[in-house]
Amino acid sequence: SGFYYDGFFGDRKLNDNDFSSIEGHAQQISKESQPFLRCVVSKAEALELFKENPFKVQLITNKVPDDALTSCYRCGDLIDLCRGPHLPNTNRAKAFLVTKNSAAYWLGDQNLDSLQRLYGIAFPNDKLLKEYKKFQEEAAKRDHRNIGKAQELFMFHPVMSPGSCFWFPPGVRIYNKLMDFMRSEYRLRGFSEVVTPNMYDARCFMTSGHYQNYKDDMYSLDVEKQEWMLKPMNCPGHFLMFDARVRSYKELPLRFADFGVLHRNEASGALTGLTRVRRFQQDDAHIFCRPDQIKSEVSGALDFLDFVYKIFGFKASYALSTRPKKALGSKEIWDNAEVQLKAALDESGREWSLNPGDGAFYGPKIDIRLQDAMKRKHQCGTIQLDFNGPIRFNLQYRKEGVEEVAEDEEKVEFKGAEEKNAKGEVIWREGRLKNGFERPVVIHRAILGSVERMSAILMEHYAGKWPFWLSPRQVKVVPVGTQFNEYALWVERQLQIYGFYAEAETSGKTLNKKVREAQLEQWNYVAVVGAEEQNALSVNLRSRESEKPLGAFSMIDFIAKLDKEAMPSSQPLRQFEAFQGRLPEAKAPAAEPAAINGRAKEQKPAFQKQGSLQVRKAANHKFASLSVDDDVEAFLEVHPYVKGFEPSSADAELFEQLSESGAPETPNLRRWYDHMESFSSLERSSWQKAA
Fold this sequence. Notes:
By secondary structure, the chain is an alpha+beta fold. It contains 23 helices and 33 strands. Strand 5 and strand 6 form a beta hairpin. The two termini are 52 Å apart.
């Protein structure tokens, strides 16, 4: 936001005193209501007008055609080249702030003169300027570079490896958890993770077209007198894997996911923390599908993306970008693809906008922008259709009804960009499409985008206060004295065994100091232990989110509490789904004696058990109106839904009632409730209509 202006000051560097002086001059000019006057001049007139300024003379000479006109604007004594438009007069902007200055080489060339770039912003009134300053103060507190340093998450070395991040152990825990989260969803959503090389013969990127268009942004290597390159994206490798053997229509859709390391040759001046780096990883996936599968695959991608962003607490906006003027493929293919993308967006129930002509040359796409806690928007996720890649890599699959023949007869030798002509231009030859075969459509899909960039966004979104499942510091175990260090270390070990990150603070510091340090380090929980806790195998718990202690928890209850806050999932994990209305049962235990100590053992019916009484109380006795089994807790122990094995309006109604009073605490109803949360309100309403 705001504006900048480049100036040549010789060896003098602007400072804060200059900023105040400039702001004062701007305020005075605003009060004078000086008009902005537009002038249109010829190239010769422009050269005469700016003959004392060598920088503008060079711009006019190189940018303005000999027979063309150019525009200037005059404001008081200042006249300058500008395209416009401008405000009517200077009084429209009443509040000014110079924000910073930096070095800027003329024309971006470090061999030319060094200029100073002054950044500023203007508002129509002081109130908006104050709001801007407040926003900037909060943004500075949330700056991921500051949080990363304070929490010792990552670092950069400006000399030895600029633009490539060094992750410390706490940062690695966040980095890996993000990828574990995606991997867990991959297993549930039918993606197969692959691993691909970092280096490729340059001919691979000649085939893809990246060599011709993005060579300057790629790192090249000399390998045995052959040009090789570090990959800037994963798709060419996935194309080669698809082409490794003959594919059948029965195999589609084929979903490859990859966390491969990517490198892009960013200019040193453009490197910015984790948001602009040279080395990074993406949650990259490529879906190879038939044209008739586009809609269902895009719907699945939208659902996946929506789930992930909701877990992070982001709001997302969607836009469909359609065929540009220069596009690869027939109008019929584009029209069909756009219709399927529109249908997928419409059926999802999401609001979306249209960006006519803004698609990529190789296919239409859905652009997704997320909004963080500071209401800033970020482009991370993408869903893109690609007709170009399958053609350039000669990808094809056997159509339905085509007789299979021996693979060695059927395989077509890969043809692509394999050489350069005498002028050094890349030669590319399209491969032959065999009879009875079709080309797949490729869907490029990313949700996190760059894991580095998403980590930065999340640091600022959460202001360094990580949710428990993603936190690099989950539980700090604090003994009240060194005599309880052994028990503290035991608690630490049990938490680690159950998959949580815990550290025992066994130093000789005072209890208050240890607790205070844990709070400043943003540990989610502090587990205080002493004689009472050691005797009972328990902890006294404090939460980062609560000023008051949470009280005593047995280790079993503590683990159960943490399990509820563990990594989220779109589907219930470690639970059986019904097969044809049946669930597997455990082998029955051996029969108990008929009598114990001479007295028959009393058996309580299911509805009299404590769990059932808790369920009734939590639901305010509203189960009767739902026409379900009188004991819902017992019923849900063997059924996934309140009326059996299919969702119904009863599930939707009960979920709505419980949502008002809070999530239930009994195990079976809580499991059912968590499962209901994974459905959208639109899906639940469809059960009501169908019932």
